[in-house]
Every structure is written in C-alpha cells, then in structure tokens.
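Inverse folding, one chain.
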C-alpha cells in the first residue's frame, strides 16, 4: 500500500531540494574553473605544439571550448537565478527566505529554549 505524501512545512524538508542545493553550491564555487579550464587547456596546447598550423580542426577545438564555457556559465546562472519550483504551489521559489506566491519558508525557524 502506497503512503500518502506528507505535508512539506519548508523547502528544506522536500526530498528534491538537497540534491539541487548541493549542485547549486558546487556550481557557485567552481563554475569559472569548469567554464574557462578547457578553453585555457586548448589554447595552451595549440600555442605550444601547433603554433604554425592553419588547420581548421584547431579552430573547431577552440570553438568547442568556447561553446562549453558558454554552456557551463548558462547552467550556473540558471541554478543561481531560476532556482527550484515550490513543492506547495508549483511557482518559482526564488532566492528569498519565502516563496513569493504561497509563503512557504525555505527553512523552519530555529527552536529556542
């Protein structure tokens, strides 16, 4: 018998939030290295070993590294600005402490003694 889904009191209680939060934190920290690293490696290899070559393959490698950099940067921006959908109302949760549509908090307040 399947269990009924429990009521979510805050975004941090939702099962899909922790993986999203880890991925967003990783990209917030390393997006620049992931984006620029391959481009830098391609340029170093080309200038070191193929500086006199006029091959179109080398140009294609530089273009592919640039496309990679743009894709990684766009995904990092998506994670940072778009965020996650609210489990309660389905609207975009946003970056604030509460959902702009239904008011679901990101975290429950800390209990004081």
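Residues assigned per position:
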């Amino acid at each position: 018998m399947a269990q009924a889904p429990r009521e979510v009191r805050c975004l941090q209680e939702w099962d899909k939030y922790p993986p999203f939060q880890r991925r967003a934190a990783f990209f917030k920290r390393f997006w620049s290295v992931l984006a620029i690293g391959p481009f830098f490696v391609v340029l170093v290899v080309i200038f070191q070993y193929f500086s006199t070559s006029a091959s179109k393959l080398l140009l294609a490698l530089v273009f592919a590294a640039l496309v990679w950099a743009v894709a990684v940067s766009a995904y990092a921006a998506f994670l940072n600005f778009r965020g996650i959908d609210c489990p309660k109302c389905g609207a975009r949760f946003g970056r604030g402490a509460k959902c702009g549509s239904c008011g679901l908090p990101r975290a429950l307040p800390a209990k004081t003694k």
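Residues 14-82 form one domain. The two ends are 40 Å apart (CA to CA).
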